[in-house]
Amino acid sequence: MREVVQVRAGVAYDCDVLVVGGGIVGLSTAYAITRAVPGTRVTVLEKEPGPARHQTGRNSGVIHSGVYYRPGSLKARYAVRGAAEMVKFCAEYDIPHAVTGKLIVATERDELPRLHALVQRGRENGIPVRELGASQIAEYEPEVRGLAAIHVGTTGVCDFVGVARQLAEASGAEIRYGAQVVRVDRRAGLGVAVLTGAGDVVRGRVLVNCAGLYCDEVARMTGDEPGMRIVPFRGEYYELARPELVRGLVYPVPDPAFPFLGVHLTRGIDGGVHVGPNAVPA
Fold first, then answer.
1. H helices within the chain, ranges in order?
2. CATH classification of 15-56+161-221, choosing from 3.30.110.30, 3.90.550.10, 1.10.10.10, 3.50.50.60?
3. d(C-alpha 68, C-alpha 165), whole Å
4. pLDDT at site 11
5. Res 170 pLDDT > 50
6. For FRET with 31, which of 21, 90, 131, 183 sits at 20 to 30 Å CA-CA?
7. In angstroms, rounded to a whole number, what is the distance separating the alpha carbons of residues 36 and 239?
8. What's the burial of 257, exposed, middle or buried (CB within 10 Å: 0-12/13-18/19+)?
9. Domain ranges for the chain
């Protein structure tokens, strides 16, 4: 017989808010809720044995400035504000980070109009952007050559795993690791009950789906139909054998024919430099 998890009237809730996913989105959600409404009982369910085991702990570590986004858009506003808040958070909790700035370099003449457009976009977003001629590039990156470049001052890098751990601790939420969601029962006005792979039932008044690449699957468990399927891609990087050749971050001018930022060089907080990525189905 199929097991059914039910929420019944009069049953005590284990928490007020149940968050699915222990990456940076789920943990920052828990952190924000407990800061906004002290006393709210928040439980985070994460299927892995620790935080940030997926995208959060496997990205390039870059704190993006928001220079690429349309001025006035939510992406632009949140990226600019979020970059400043991330640096502040890392400084407050002594999490490894650095505001390195980055170069966006044009190596072909047909890239120059797009580079200039980024200057205008960055300035409209309130981002410090400096235009550089070919001879000025060496001020920031002596080993880089190009026709022109811009320096974006607010781009940085940080330890996102460290950020996730600190969010978990500072939130005061109950974090349950090794708790994979396998079934959700949702009843109008009665909250939700979640069955985990270990056989535990966790009841909450509200569920927030922060399951990353599995958000579509979790949404369907709740009875919703998101109308889309997440198809994950991953990037593969080389590691530069001579990291001293790169001081910070070096990017190409984005090509509008491709939905990615192109191959770039990223100096991480560990001092290593990654070169890439490609993009392949995961």
1. 24-36, 74-92, 112-124, 160-171, 215-221
2. 3.50.50.60
3. 29
4. 62
5. yes
6. 183
7. 41
8. exposed
9. 15-56+161-221, 99-156+234-281
